[in-house]
Specification:
By secondary structure, the chain is an alpha+beta fold. It folds into three domains: about 200 residues, no CATH class; about 80 residues, Pdz3 Domain (Roll); about 80 residues, Pdz3 Domain, CATH 2.30.42. The protein contains 13 helices and 16 strands. The protein has a five-stranded antiparallel sheet. Strand 8 and strand 9 form a beta hairpin. Helix 1 crosses helix 9 and helix 7 packs across helix 10. The longest helix has about 30 residues. The protein is elongated, with a radius of gyration of 27 Å.
Length: about 450
Amino acid sequence: MGIVVMISQFLLALTILVGIHELGHFLAARMFKIRVDKFYLFFDFLFPFQDKMNFALFKKKIGDTEYGLGWFPMGGYVNINGMVDETTNADQLPAEPQPYEYRSKPHWQKIIVILGGIIFNIVLGIIIYTFWLQYFQKEYLPVQEMKQGIFVHEAGEKIGFRNGDRILSVNGKNPVRYEDCFPMDIFFGGNYMVERMENGQMVEKKIEISNGFHKQIRSQFFEPYYHQIRIMGLLENGNAEKAGIKPDDVIEKVNGIAYANFSEFKAILDSNRSKTISIKVKRKEASVDMTCMVDTAGKIGIAPFFVTNKSKYAMKDYGMMEAFSFGISECFKTFALQGIALVKMGKGEISAKENIGGFGSIAKVFGKEWNWSKFWILTAMLSMGLAFMNLLPIPGLDGGYFVMIVYEWIVGKPINPKVMDVLQRIGFMLILALMIFANGNDLIKALPESIRKLIGY
C-alpha cells in the first residue's frame, strides 16, 4: 500500500506541474490568436519519437484544439500551429506562414509564448510556498527571540560553533527567521557571523564554511537552544517500540522533567541506565504517558529529529503579505540553487551520479505515507526545478527556443526550418540521454551493494 501512495503522490504532483506548464504556453498562444492544435497532459507517443506508439487514453476536440491525456507520463505538450517542436517537423509546415501561425507573429510575442510555461511554473511555486507557510507552518521563530543562542550538535562543533552562539548573519545577510539560518547556498560555502561569550565579554566570531561542506554534512548542525525530540524512526523490537512510542511522537517529559534540549535528555537517560523511566509524549493533539526501559548504553532505541519547543519562545504568525514575501524568497533560493549545483557539477565539484536521480528518486522523496504538508512543499520545489530545467539553452527545451528567437531577432531573418529540425533532434537526444542516465542511476542504486561494487559503482 505504501508503494501505491508514493507513486500516487508523484503522479499527482507531475500532473499538476505539467498541466500548469503547458497551460502557460497555451494561454500565451491564444492571447496572441495563435491556433493551438493539441493540448496534451503526458505524451501520446514514445517521447522523443513522435511516430512511435501513438495513442491517447482520452481525447476530445473543442474548437480548433484537441485536448487529451497521453499514455507516457514523462511530460506533456501543446502543439502550437506553425512551430517546429517535438510534435511537428519542418516538412509538415506549409510554404507560406498563415496569420494564425506561430511563425507569422513578431519576436516579442514568440518569446512570451515560449516563456509562458516557465512563468506559470514560477508563479505556481510562489503561490504554493505562500499558502504552505501560512496554513502548514503558520508561525516562525524570529532569530531575535533566540536569546539563549543555539544548541550545537557534534557536526556543528567541528565547524566551529559553540553552545550559546547567537547568529548575527549568514553570508552577509541578517536572518529574520530561524529557517533563514540555513540558506541553500551556505552548503556550497560561505560564512556565519556569531556572537558568543568569552572571558565574560560578548565577542563576534566568523565561522567559515568550506566549498565542499555539502559533502561533509549529513544532519542538522545546530538547533534553537530549546527544542524537543520528535521520533523519526524506531529500532525494531527496541525498548521504545515495546513501550508503545510511535513515529512522529514528540517527547515532552522524561521522569517528569521538561528537558531543555537533547543534551539534558541524554543526561537523564545516562543517569538511568538499566532502569525504567516514565515518558510523556504528544501524539497529534493528545498527551500519552508510558514507561520505557533504558539499556546499558543509555539508549531506548529511537532515531530522533529535533523540533523547536514553541512554549519557550515568542513565535510570530505568518501574515499573508509576510508569507508572500518569504514565499518569493524561498522560490528564488530554490531556483538559484539549481544553477549553483549545475555549475559545480560541470566543474566536477559535485558528483552527477550522486545528485541526479530519475522518477524513482523523486517518488521516494514523497514517502509511503500521504502527508499534504510534505506533498505541497515538494511540489513547489519541483515546480521551480522544472522552470529552471526548461530555461536551459538546449534545443527542444524552452530555453533553446528562446535562444533561437533572440538569434533570429538579432540577425533579422528566420533560421532555416531544416536547421531547426536538426537542432531539435540533437536536443531531444540530449534530453533522452539525460533521462536514461537519471533513471539508470536509480536502477543501479537499487542493486545489492555487492553487485554495485562488482561493476565499480
